[in-house]
Amino acid sequence: MPGRFPAAWLDELYARADIVQIVSAYVPLKKNGSRYWGLCPFHHEKTPSFSVNAEQNLYYCFGCKAGGNVVQFVQEMERLTYPEAVEHIARQMHIPVPAMQEDPDYERRRTQRERLLAANRAAAKWYHAQLWLPENQRLLDYLHNRGLDDGTIRKFGLGAAPDAWDALTTELENQGYSQEELRLAGLTVVKPDSRFDMFRNRAIFPIIDAQGQVLGFGGRAMGDIQPKYLNTSDTPVFNKRKGVYAANLLKKQRNLNRIILVEGYMDVVALIQHGVNGVVATLGTALTNEQARLLKRYAPEIWVSYDGDSAGQHAIVRALDIFEQEDIKARVLFFPDNLDPDEFIRQRGLDAFQKLRPLRAAEYLLQRAKEGLDLSDDEGRMEYARRSAEILRKVKEPIELDHYLKNLTVDTGISREVLVQQMGITMPEAQQPQRAVLRPLRRNQGEKTHSMEEKTLISILASGLAPENAIRAEDFDTPLIRQLAEKLLSGMSPASILSECENDQDRQEISDLFALDIQINAENAASMAEQCLNTVRVHRLQKQIDEISANLNNLDNENKQDELKQLMALTTELNRIKRLVH
Fold this sequence. Notes:
Layout: H1 7-16, H2 19-24, E1 30-32, E2 35-38, E3 50-53, E4 58-61, E5 67-69, H3 70-78, H4 82-92, H5 106-131, H6 137-145, H7 150-155, E6 159-161, H8 167-174, H9 179-184, E7 188-191, E8 194-197, E9 202-208, E10 214-221, E11 229-231, H10 247-250, E12 259-262, H11 265-273, E13 279-281, H12 289-296, E14 301-305, H13 310-325, E15 329-332, H14 341-354, E16 359-360, H15 361-369, H16 378-392, H17 398-412, H18 416-423, H19 427-431, H20 451-463, H21 479-489, H22 494-499, H23 504-514, H24 525-551, H25 557-581
Parallel strand pairs: 12-13, 12-14, 14-15
Antiparallel strand pairs: 1-2, 2-3, 3-4, 4-5, 6-9, 7-8, 9-10, 10-11, 15-16
């Protein structure tokens, strides 16, 4: 996020961050020539096409075209935002993160955050240790009776809050945490004349983020204690609107094609124990836009699997609406016979789960649109058609829309033309929406003749070996490459330029330019630059000559004489440069 961190500090971070060392923690690399090579972590391959340029602090895959700088690599691998990735690298390198610009209170909040996270981590360890004590056997029995084995219990760090007034508070105070810190962390309730543990006589589910930090807890009550589930309230380190349960496991499950969103902690634990990957739950609240954006980092599609009661169905509709707002493809996964995911997977197993077919969002909404209507009479069918038209107006895929329209004409007896009219779109739009999604090429055909020379010149500039004042921004005709040249000539590094990219398409295209596989060194940089510049100038001069020649017959004598003089001068210059090229 440009501007969040001081520019000078960011420049130092990029300069000190060793991309080879950082990437090697995820991908085994082997040096070959001036680059390091390995199997790409972003797509499946058997022959290494993933390269790391240590000098420029860049990575690039010649297979899937993924590319970027060291921070962007950490973003992709750890599923972090840009500021989070910057702080992640800074912590690894033991570089103090500076106060935010125009934020004098940052240092106090950072210290407080570190203390609260440490208190949560200590609490999670204590809860987990309590689970195995004889006096808390009933809590361990509860988890075993729900079908969990000890390996799963340890994997999720499940624990036990004993039936005691202030056992955790006393323990953490003895470890050096103040009562105020425990209150801020949501671990202790403080009253004017007393203080006591937030969680008592409950099975404990630690809520851990993608970086492995314990943010809070969920507690399942034993017996008739209410509420049945109790969650940590919002704290300086925990906001239930922004996270999901089991986020820490998502980043370990690469190349997920979908995430399953369920309601309960036990649903998550049971499904994962039985071999279902990519399962998370909201944290005691309805789905939020922040949670949807978080999930979008990990998979292109979400399957919503909430309870079948009225509240669950309403929550599904709300979730689908949020996913639509965030442009995330969503489906709805139902478990038969009113079973919840936990019950279904324990009773019927993984094979039965894998045979379940999720409904597309529109398919689910169309089924709900029938509720309360009698489709055997005209009024019911017309109302169903009205409701369905509202739903189908949002369907973007032409094939999917056509499928639903055909079924709807059968169910209602109303013609396709009338249904489309009710949707508020014209027939050509409904029948030929493919044309709307075609995108123009970013370059016209005329630019391809000298693109390799321009790319080579950019590589020379990026290498830092270009002779002084030999290459100018005006030497480039392609707008994108001219902008890159301006930034490189101003002193920006390739890694810094990539950090400014606003979308993945620009980042991929610029990474492709910086990754040109040519051997540039101090001995050949000058001659290579001169040869490329001459070739570019030949193309430019030839283009000017062709344009003037084509227009000569349209000029009067006076203007024609001026153009002929210009044509002769251009031709002389063209011949001079051609002799240099050859």
